[in-house]
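HOLO CASE FILE
Compound: fe (ii) ion
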Amino acid sequence: MFTPDISLEIHAFSLPIVGEIPDWLNGTFVRNHPVRITKDGKPVGHWFDGPAMLHALSFDEGRVHYSNKFIHSEIYDLLFKKHSLDYPGFAQNRDQCAFKKLLSFFFPSSIQTIQNTNVNLTKIAERHVALTEVPLPVEFNIKTLETLGVLPYEDPFPKRQSFESAHPHYNQETGELISFFIEFGYQTTYNVYRIKKDQLTREIIAKIPVKEPAYMHSFALTENYIILTEFPFRARPIDFILQARPFIFNFNWKPESGTQFIIIDRHQGEILGQFSTKAFFAFHHANAFEKEGELFLDIITYPDAGVIRDLYAYGLPFNEEEFKSKSERYFTQTQLVRFKVSLENKNIDSEVILKTPLEFPRHHEKLDGKPYRYLYAIDPRDFIPGDLVAGDLRQINDKRALYKIDLNSKDFLIWHEVDCYPSEPLFIPSPHASDEDAGVILTLVYHAIEQNSFLLVLDAKTFQELGRAKIPQKINASLHGQFF
Ligand SMILES: [Fe+2]
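Model generated. Tokens follow.
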């Protein structure tokens, strides 16, 4: 029997508020959360394969209501109705023979299953959707969090057996979304596409053949360019068919080929160049922009892709101590690096902006792809998606901080509270404000001693608390959130 960390689903619960929530804040803050699963008290599976749960905080004139609900995916049914872990995921596989895999790869079923969309969220054609790294977003009702079904793309592009970025760039002003998918087959290709406002059609901007595709969790966008950062964490497409192993285990670290920046003209789709730098890995691009003919990319880098395996199974065989020391080791090695790509001189410079361990970077959404000054992030060390031991926490609680980084001065402000573990910070601008940091920071904070969570609202300028609202259950180690 598999037990989720959170089983209670709550609807529109009015939260008690300490301090003040700005009354101009109107909308819904939704976070996507791979819920940890245990069997006989021990965690099973990879953190990234937990069943998706959405948490929504609705703001209305200074009041906050909380709701949460699982995405009703095929995996949800398997886990909780059939008590089976036999599903394909990021780091686990369906138990299937090679011949059947081969058949299903080339002759995919027309049945579009509801995937375990547990990574991110966005809007497509005015519909709210949850995303993971497979091609079909899952639509949900923003008011009830009810799963509405697979988003019905109206295009001929892959609807199965492809990899899709869970980090599209959505422009709030134009409604345009830009993202990419990898189509596996006789000739594997990176496909960069756009979806125009109110459309359900992916329009290909550029198609790039690739022999051994890389695992790329996110990518960069500027006003005129799309940049795929191709890490040397590559897979042979044939292995997805023939090897009976989980998706991510088909990728191998090949540092000798370095990390490549593939620069694409955003308007014409032309490949303008491929620039190589020394090998590194990353999950998240912080932002990118153009200035005086040069491209700047801010990326949270890891020395290699070992972090992925270390997030596996919070140990299979389960060993929490080992997991802790590995995650400590990997997250300690993250650096915020600014890469400068000169298209004319065809060279790359890099500068470490901050050596402090950082993850889950966010910025003012209107400055996506444009010069910007402030970045918000968390220190991810001991980002353990499970129960934490109070004694351990007291030794490490200084690590779980929220950061506001001034990229001009490289100074930073910190929010930190004993035994409290914040998740990705989201910046919401005040209405009619002109300063880049005029607004609030929203995040969910897990209180490890009280075993519950709270919504934290900070003044983004001062990083001082404005208010908090206690949620009647714990939400630990959620991934990404958006404000709708
Ligand atoms: Fe991500």
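CASE NOTES: Residues 75 and 116 are 6 Å apart (CA to CA). Confidence is low (pLDDT under 50) at residues 105-111, 313-319, 385-397.
CLOSED: yes
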